[in-house]
Design brief:
12 helices, about 10% strand, 5-stranded mixed sheet, about 260 residues, elongated, 5 strands, alpha/beta, Conserved hypothetical protein from pyrococcus furiosus pfu- 392566-001, ParB domain, 2 domains
């Protein structure tokens, strides 16, 4: 039997299948926003099966519910055999940071292309690359923007400074691409009075001083020891880096507060 794309604005023709997820349109704000802008996209119809005098929705109940809210025509395909939606959905592979960045980069979005180029150049985890270029320390801070296509590169000079230092250190220290170490170097690179070349050179000369640690602050303490090796005047690398990050976090929180007051 040939399948045909049908449409209607008679929402009462449909009923929901009991085994499907409960309708929670509040949790599908991105879908709502997309359908509000683009309407009900024909290439993503809902799948239904006739049950009595109704069309039972096998897949697409949230699209139907949102279409009803926005008063959009519903596009659907009617099939004769039943399908196991939970089983089908369980086989889907969730999109990763890499998947989103690859997708938007293929669409020609320049900021996503820059993330891919940065990763190729410095061989760092893709999430860390996106975070560094956005001027933050965690990709979770920019994941919503990465997903919805609004991600922006905001601090490329700092990111490339961090990438350069990490690539040099990684030649002698293989744990340089771990998150605690990346976070530590990221905070050190914010300090204007630190000689980054000295840090790199001391690590090269004394690789035995390098040990893997599980937090940014313990890595900073180790790097302070390495940095000060051979210096007459000890530089408080760890505390200065920690204070700089606290200052930046405070400024960031204040900016968010001010922006919220203006909306």
């Amino acid at each position: 039997m040939a399948l045909h794309l049908l449409s209607t604005n008679n929402y009462g023709l449909f009923c929901y299948k009991d085994v499907n997820r409960p309708i929670e349109t509040e949790r599908h704000k991105r879908l709502y926003a997309s359908m509000k802008v683009h309407g009900f996209i024909k290439s993503f119809p809902i799948t239904v099966k006739r049950k009595g005098g109704k069309l039972e929705i096998l897949d697409g109940q949230h699209r139907h519910a949102i279409a009803m809210q926005l008063k959009l025509h519903v596009y659907y395909i009617e099939i004769e055999s039943d399908i196991d939606i939970p089983e089908i959905n369980s086989t889907q592979v969730p999109w990763t940071v890499q998947t989103y960045i690859d997708s938007y980069a293929k669409a020609g979005k320049q900021d996503y292309l820059l993330v891919k180029e940065f990763k190729t150049k410095y061989q760092l985890p893709i999430g860390e690359c996106a975070a560094l270029l956005a001027g933050t320390i965690s990709y979770h801070n920019v994941m919503p923007q990465i997903k919805n296509g609004t991600y922006k590169v905001k601090d490329a000079p700092h990111a490339y400074r961090v990438g350069s230092v990490l690539s040099q250190i990684s030649q002698v220290y293989k744990k340089a691409n771990t998150k605690p170490f990346i976070d530590a170097i990221c905070s050190i690179c914010r300090l204007k009075d630190v000689e980054l070349s000295r840090l790199v050179e001391n690590i090269r000369k004394h690789p035995h001083m390098m040990q893997p640690y599980g937090t940014r602050d313990t890595v900073l303490t180790m790097l302070e020891t390495v940095y000060n090796f051979g210096r007459r005047t000890l530089y408080p690398l760890a505390i200065n880096a920690q204070n700089e990050m606290k200052r930046r976090n405070a400024c960031g929180n204040e900016k968010i507060k001010n922006e919220s007051k203006t909306h």
